[in-house]
Amino acid sequence: MTTAKQSLEKIGKKLVDDIEKGKNPEIELPVRALSNIIYDKKTCTLTMGKNIAKRYFFNVAHAKKFMQTVEVAAISKNLLEEGKHASLRDVFYMAKRTIPNTKVNIVDEQSESDKAIEDLELISENAREMLNINANKMGSVAGKVIIEDQGDRIDWSKLGSGGWSIPSNVENIKFIKANAKYIVYMEKAAVWERLHEDKFWDKHECIIMSSQGQTTRGIRRLLQRMQEELGLPVYVLTDFDPWGIYIYSVLKYGSISLAHITEKLAVSGCKFLGITADDILKYDLKKHFIKFEENDSKRLAQISGYDWFKDNKDFQRQFRMMKEFKAKAEIQAMSARGISFISEKYLPDKIKNKDWIE
Question: What is the CATH number of the domain that holds 182?
Answer without folding.
Answer: 3.40.1360.10
